[in-house]
Design goal:
The complex is a heterodimer. Chain A contains six helices and eight strands; from the N terminus they run αβαββαββαββαβα. Chain A is an alpha+beta fold. Chain B is of the alpha/beta class. In chain B, the strands form seven sheets. A five-stranded parallel β-sheet of chain B has the order 3-2-1-7-19. In chain B, strands 9-16-10-11-12 form a five-stranded parallel β-sheet. In chain B, strands 22-23-26-25-24 form a five-stranded antiparallel β-sheet, with helices on both faces. In chain B, a hairpin with a 3-residue loop joins strand 13 and strand 14. The chains are: A alpha+beta, B alpha/beta. At the A-B interface, helix 1, helix 3, helix 4 and helix 6 of A face helix 1, helix 8, strand 22, strand 23 and helix 9 of B.
Amino acid sequence: MQGINLFLSDRKFDTDAEVKSMDEEKVIVFDPHYCSGCMYCMTACSTYNNGATSLSKSRIHIVRHEGHAITKMTDEDDLIFDMITCQQCDQPYCLYLCPALAVERNDDTGALIINHDKCVGCRMCMVGCPFGVILYDLNKKQIVKCELCGGDPQCVRFCASGALQFLPKNLAHLPKRDRLAKKMIQLRARAREEEPI
Amino acid sequence: MELVNNGGTGIHKQTMAVQIGKDEKWKRFVVVGNGIAGISAAYTIRRYNKEAKIIIISEEPYPTYSPCVLPNYLSGEISRDRVFVREFPDYSKDNIQLITSEKVITLDVERKSVVMQAENIVYDKLIIATGSKPMIPPIKGINRKGVFTFKSIEDADGICTWEGCTAVVIGSGPIGIEASLALKRRGYQVFLIELLDRILPQVFDDYPASLIREGLKENGIDVATQERVVEILGGESVEGVLSDRREIKCDTVILATGMRPEKGFVEGILELGKLGGIKVNHRMSTNIQDVYACGDCAETLSLIDGQPILSLLWHNARQQGEVAGSNAAGIPRTYTGSLNITAVDVFDLKAVSMGSIGTSLDSGLDIIEVRRNGGYRRLVLSNGVLVGIQSINWDEDLGLFLAAILRKEKVKTYKDLISFRRPPFRFLKQFPFGRKLHSVRGRG
């Protein structure tokens, strides 16, 4: 979750400050297993950031995928949801590409934020983003992106099913690992019932 | 949840890096050049080393500004203040000393000092980020008043104060195109002249270049290719331009015939590369110890084919500055290579080019063209691997292709890149936990 390592980063955690930030900086973690597709997160995001509810202006997107005939084995498998939002990459191309130094890293939250006083609206950040999560607001004529709502992401706050969590970076992988471990135990138990030794 | 461990990978290297950083404290770092590469190097050093003395030497009397937004200033979209990305108080806030309007004459490698007119400055580590300068073509009458280059803020100020109404732009690289668009927005009548057979010859192939040319024509810019400018006519100031085909009456001439690395004071001291830039290795260090080079003046390797290139682009300079600064501060970091990403906005038409273009490749070239809703995309493949993309009026999910270029992805059709490939059915049947396969995918 800590930004996909696309840019061949050899970044090491260089200073004490950065190691500390690994414990404190939080990221949005998504677990597709729990997502019900209610889109409360998108509603909350657009309402909080735009003052009006408009799913197309939301900075977080839930993608709904109807189960494919091949993967659909039982009735409960019919819907798959996935989440796309800013990954707050470690080596962000939006930050490198910005000719006006308008993309900045917030020291408190670790989020990449747009400084609208500096932004000239050239949209180079949109060109470079591998996730396509930087939006251009045609009404305000400015670039908008997920800025983690200043440290209290509204999408996580309003997530009804618990699929979205806001966890410190070094704990981000644990929910998935837990769930997978539980599942393995169940499967082993089932196998033991079916074939007693 | 208590089982917190950073994993075996990071910790050892991390403590090593911190120790190296501590040994290198109390040093004098000198940065020559106050462009983006210079300041990103200086600020990277400051991030790792709070006590070091950092001196930036600049030829110009201004704080750092962004040459990329000069067209927006020239056209009147933004004010002059917004061209500057730093102000003078910002430097002293981070305890960085800025020496302006001073030219470095030479470099004393044995004594480790930078020689200037007034004084010598001793360094422990030197970073050269002198940038590039416009190439002036050998045309008759080039010194007349009204002939401008378009690189620095002084040039832009000069054009803003110059009273003209007809302009000839010589050269149709990204700078030439942006200058002619800005002049058009300013109310000029603009003629664009290119020597080669298409506009934007380094960043676009024939067909996309012709689309951009049509966009320029629709907005009233006169574009001519395969035309050579012979002479700039006039008395003291410009009155016209004579080419091998015609004579154009004008009062302003913009030279946008390319950039060359500015290597004035290091020539003969540092090793230069094939293309005329300062030769650097993957740590951005030159052939002399404790001297680093970054930005437009350095000759780096291409991310795509590993050949030396001069990448005179903002984002590469910024990354190079960070790598050079980090290595100078004692924390080893590798520069992975330069990549071309260029975007040109021609009024409503948005053109983007990433990576290599088709005409620059010799063998194993393959082109995939896609058209949709008035948009156009051209994928350039070399031996089946995606090396470049050009896109006109279709800039959604372009970053996907950037990621694919960086991953050196093998592509056969356009759909390979945009659709999710599923494992074959046979595989799913054999897989013991196959029926719940999708529930363990996703990030986390």
